[in-house]
């Protein structure tokens, strides 16, 4: 069972998620809202172990791993405190010898048994023209990152998406004419100890006894690497055709120091000004610094004609940095603003919404269960006001039993749409799953959230004048930018 907030231990489990950033193995070079810059990295896989600077990070303790199981939101990684500082007094001598006339400097981070690694920087500053790449042994590359990449220009914080494997390399490149030195400090290495479907499975296991030792300890229970078979793939089911626009408003969130993930939805506002407002669940916003959170759009199948579930192509478009705007545990909602401009090529949609107290069926949920591709859940009944004991005023909707599909851990914060394709709530929790098809789900009511400060951001000038429910329709972000 997945429950409500943290008050009752039997109800604590939520649909929280492993955020996953898909780095398509078919395209070996893929950045996070970025591109290969002027100075591509010099990757030599055969000599990757010869990199002069290597940091071996001890894996998290078994106690810390066990503390993340069962009684908390779905967590796939553990954040490990470190202190890795780029040498700021001078560029190392070996960085001056490259034939292309640029300074290049690399270091490697390794942690035995890790299924994925990512980095959190508590300070990120680069001189103009400098570029940074992060890549793994499979030559999946993130970058180029530049001076403009810091999520928060005031605190200079930054983070990278997970890369598959137990090691990664950071490469710094700057033209020889640039005299300024960078200031880069890694404060945390995020150690992935659970499988993430979209990072599997071309990883060659390291012939290192420590890897198998740690994996035996971390995976003593049966692992489910994909969502349940009863889920409806949005791109592969006829019902998904009618929801193709709304599907482009759905995002995966990597939160809580990039240790867990949830689902969210971009919302339109009454000004129709293209502000990047993201709705998710309150219990998904545990991050002490949302400026390092990562958001991924378009994680869905491109085609379903004879696809092999182990060999697929997917979209994966990521942006960085969130800013807290409003939220309430009463309806378990959180509204955040994406700080990095969403590129036009992502073609995202800003969903419409409604404060109706009697949403019309059929009701549809779009979500990412267990970090999988977008799924669809359909409910043909009417919603009932409900919640658990700690939720006042019955500020939630109850889906008594899904007509088709379900939700799972990873779906938390995902939107529920009414028959008019407008958001009427976001997923809080419940007992529904492929293993409990008679289970229910609970969504925070959009109407309740509206009266608890949500209106200040979606209709700050009271532009939507009506005597009944307040609502607006969705629109593509690119249409607003024209």
Automatic annotation (TrEMBL):
Pfam families named among the record's database cross-references: Trypsin_2
Keywords, alphabetical: Signal
Gene: PARPA_08360.1 scaffold 32756
Taxonomy, superkingdom: Eukaryota
Coiled coil: none
Protein name: Peptidase S1 domain-containing protein
Signal peptide: 1-31
Keyword hit for Amino-acid biosynthesis: no
Matching InterPro entries: Peptidase_S1_PA, Peptidase_S1_PA_chymotrypsin
């Amino acid at each position: 069972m997945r429950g409500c907030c943290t008050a009752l231990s039997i109800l604590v489990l939520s649909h929280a998620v492993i955020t996953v950033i898909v780095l398509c193995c078919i395209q070996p070079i893929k950045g996070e809202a970025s591109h290969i810059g002027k100075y591509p990295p010099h990757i030599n896989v055969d000599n990757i172990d010869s990199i002069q600077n290597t940091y071996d990070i001890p894996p998290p303790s078994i106690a810390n791993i066990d503390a993340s199981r069962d009684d908390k939101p779905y967590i796939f990684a553990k954040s490990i405190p470190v202190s890795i500082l780029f040498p700021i007094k001078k560029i190392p001598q070996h960085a001056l010898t490259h034939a292309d006339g640029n300074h290049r400097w690399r270091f490697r981070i390794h942690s035995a048994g890790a299924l994925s690694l990512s980095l959190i920087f508590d300070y990120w500053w680069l001189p103009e023209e400098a570029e940074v790449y992060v890549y793994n042994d499979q030559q999946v590359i993130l970058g180029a990152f530049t001076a403009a990449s810091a999520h928060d220009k005031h605190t200079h914080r930054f983070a990278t998406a997970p890369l598959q494997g137990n090691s990664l390399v950071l490469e710094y490149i700057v033209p020889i004419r640039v005299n300024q030195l960078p200031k880069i400090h890694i404060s945390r290495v995020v150690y992935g100890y659970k499988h993430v479907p979209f990072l599997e499975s071309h990883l060659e296991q390291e012939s290192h006894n420590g890897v198998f030792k740690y994996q035996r300890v971390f995976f003593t229970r049966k692992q489910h690497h994909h969502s349940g078979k009863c889920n409806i793939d949005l791109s592969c089911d006829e019902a998904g055709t009618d929801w193709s626009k709304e599907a482009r408003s759905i995002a995966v969130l990597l939160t809580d120091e990039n240790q867990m993930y949830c689902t969210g939805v971009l919302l339109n506002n009454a000004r129709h000004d293209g502000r990047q407002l993201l709705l998710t669940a309150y219990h998904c916003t545990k991050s002490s610094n949302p400026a390092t959170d990562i958001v991924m759009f378009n994680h869905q199948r491109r085609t379903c004609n004879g696809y092999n579930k182990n060999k697929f192509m997917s979209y994966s478009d990521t942006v960085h940095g969130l800013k807290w705007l409003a939220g309430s545990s009463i309806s378990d909602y959180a509204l955040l603003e994406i700080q990095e401009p969403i590129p036009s090529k992502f073609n995202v949609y800003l969903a419409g919404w409604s404060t109706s107290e009697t949403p019309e069926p059929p009701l549809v949920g779009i979500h990412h269960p267990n970090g999988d591709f977008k799924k669809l859940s359909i409910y043909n009944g009417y919603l009932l006001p409900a919640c658990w004991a700690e939720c006042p005023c019955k500020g939630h909707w109850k889906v008594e039993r899904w007509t088709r599909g379900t939700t799972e851990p990873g779906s938390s914060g995902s939107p529920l749409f009414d028959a008019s394709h407008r958001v009427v709530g976001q997923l809080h929790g419940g007992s529904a799953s492929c293993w409990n098809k008679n289970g229910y789900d609970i969504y925070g009511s959009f109407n309740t959230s509206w009266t608890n400060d949500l209106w200040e951001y979606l209709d700050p000038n009271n532009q939507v004048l009506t005597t009944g429910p307040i609502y607006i329709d969705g629109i593509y972000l690119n249409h607003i930018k024209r």
